[in-house]
Write a structure and sequence with these properties.
By secondary structure, this protein is an all-alpha fold. The protein has helices at about 5-30, 35-65, 70-100, 105-135, 140-165, 175-209. The model has no long low-confidence stretch (mean pLDDT about 90).
Amino acid sequence: MDLDIGKQIYDFTEQVSEGAMLCKSGVESYLKGNFEALRASITCIKDTEKRGEMLRRSIEQDICLKTLNPKSRSDVVQLLEGMDLLIMQFRDLVSQLDIESPEICGGFHADFKRLLEYSIEAVEADIRSCRACFSNIHSFTDHIHKVTFWNRQSRDVSIRLQRAVFAQGDLTLSQKMHLCSFAKQIEGIAEDAESVADRLKRYISKRTG
């Protein structure tokens, strides 16, 4: 792998990580009722998404011009697209909070924050795995299995949270469905991270097989 492309991939994954942190900040701001801070996070995530998109296109262009064979090019492009989707997931989550303004009672705050934390951990494990692919392939296995672990943790919290929501007697059915849709949306981030991990595994298998 060309060293310049490896550096660009590092910079690209930095945008994914920044998007995750901005999303976390935005959700926490929403739970505190600080809607101005939430909207500031949305603006920052959109800027991060634009930088990530520019980097992704630059990497794809370099890949086409340099030494990778056609099959490897396709694998890397699909991998980058999967990582790019994660930034979009973070943007969509905070944007939907701003648009829909779900009523999240204090008793659910801890689990919503924990659910997002676990989903972000899955993404961060993806990021470390992706960087290992293009810099230190021997450390790849140190990180990739953690994506599955955090995805499972996310799923467990999501199920527990949804059960708690439906057990809450003072909520209407529409309120329960609304809250559960956000729980599923956050869980979906970890699931998408697992899909990226699967692509990473296939790419590594082809490189080392």
